[in-house]
Structures are given as C-alpha cells and as structure tokens.
Task: inverse folding
C-alpha cells in the first residue's frame, strides 16, 4: 500500500483457492488496499486468508450476507470483528431484529462496520411477488434501506441504478457499496444493471466492488489505475 492507494475501490477475491487469491493480491501490491472476501473463498481457504490480508495492512469486506436468528448473526459478526474485518454484510430482508443484533455485536470492534443488502441484484419484481412481496424492486430497495438505517447499520449495498435514490435517502455519511460495475470495452458479462465505477461514484457511491474487470484483466494494476483516475 502507498499513500495514493484509493481505498474506495474494493477488489472482489472471487476464487475457490487460497493460492490463486494470494497470488493476485501479491501481483496487485500497493495498488489496492481493500478486498472483498465472500463465502466461496472463505469456505475454500479458511479464516487465515483474512488474517493474512489484515496483517498486510489491507482492509477486508467480509461478505457473509448474514440471514439467521439474531443470536447467530451476532456471533458471526463478532467472529468477523475478531478476524479484523472492516465491513461485514447482513440481509435487511431478515428484518430489524437481525440488523440490530449485528450492529450491537459490532460495537465491540470500533473498526467494524455493518452494511445491509436490500434486494439482491438478480431478483426481479416477479421473484418478489413469488415470495409474497407486492412492491417493485426499486420501492423495496428503498424500504429496506430505510429499515437498515433505522436499525443502525452503517450503510447498504446498492447497484449502480440504485445509488442515486439511496444517497438521497441515507444522507452523506452512510456507506453505499456498489457492485455490478464494469469498465467500458470490458468483456465481463452477467450484469443486468451495470454501469461504470465513475458513474457509481458520481451518483453517490462511497465504494465500488470490482471483480472480474480487475482480477481477469491482462494487467490488473492498470485496470485499477484506470478506475482510480476516472477514465
Ligand atoms: O461481476 P464482478 O466480477 O465484478 O463481481 C464482483 C462482485 O460483485 C461479486 O462478488 C458479486 O457478489 C458482486 N455482484 C453483485 N451484483 C452484481 C454483480 C456482482 O452483487 N450485479
């Protein structure tokens, strides 16, 4: 890491193998100071991988997407805090009890922030109808974000399309962490509501999560620099 490392950019380590993840982190060196570790890598590699990243001075977003009884959520949040994670995620669809338990458990760890997922980006209005929710996705996202803020969460995860309304709702301080960003000319598919990292920042994202556009780039450091300088 160096003083110019842009910690608003979080690189998703979506690997099923510790060696591959660590090789990429070594290759990126000081160009990234914030990594996302999800259930795939955590399950495959174990918590030592997270400790290793923290020991190297990186911040870690542990994307656990917690949706459990409050007691179990609290335990998982404490475990994330003990590992040195900076951010942990919880599902707002689980309701206030789950989110409040997560926020309460995180108090022990001053560096740990709890962010809430609203409607996962793969869900459509018809998926919501299937589970008995009459609201459309946009309305449901804002409803859940409001609930997350009231429960004391430090922020939310929001797709590029949702960032603007979320920033308006949540005010200037809360985190809005935005995945689903791609670089122009990139070949990464599978993003229904994609936009560039720069559009996400302009709309109010505090952080962007970028995966394959960096991890599969011929030159990951160049891809990161491109994001940081804004073109
Ligand atoms: O697509 P990409 O490789 O950039 O994805 C990076 C991360 O962003 C993944 O870990 C995934 O969980 C998340 N993501 C998301 N919603 C999307 C696309 C990606 O939550 N629409």
Result:
């Amino acid at each position: 890491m160096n003083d110019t490392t842009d910690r608003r950019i979080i690189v998703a380590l979506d690997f099923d193998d510790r060696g591959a993840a660590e090789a990429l982190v070594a290759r990126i060196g000081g160009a990234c100071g914030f990594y996302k570790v999800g259930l795939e890598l955590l399950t495959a590699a174990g918590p030592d991988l997270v400790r290793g990243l923290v020991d190297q001075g990186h911040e870690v977003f542990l994307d656990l997407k917690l949706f459990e009884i409050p007691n179990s959520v609290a335990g998982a949040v404490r475990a994330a805090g003990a590992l040195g994670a900076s951010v942990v995620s919880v599902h707002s669809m689980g309701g206030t009890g789950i989110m409040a338990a997560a926020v309460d458990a995180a108090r022990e760890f001053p560096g740990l922030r709890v962010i809430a997922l609203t409607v996962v980006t793969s869900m459509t209005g018809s998926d919501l109808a299937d589970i008995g929710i009459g609201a459309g996705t946009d309305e449901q996202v804002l409803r859940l974000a409001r609930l997350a803020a009231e429960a004391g969460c430090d922020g939310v995860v929001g797709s590029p399309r949702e960032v603007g309304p979320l920033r308006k709702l949540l005010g200037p301080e809360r985190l809005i962490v935005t995945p689903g960003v791609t670089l122009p000319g990139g070949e990464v598919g599978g993003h229904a509501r994609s936009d560039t990292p720069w559009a996400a920042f302009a709309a109010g994202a505090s952080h962007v999560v970028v995966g394959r556009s960096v991890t599969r780039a011929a030159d990951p450091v160049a891809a990161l620099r491109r994001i940081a300088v804004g073109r």
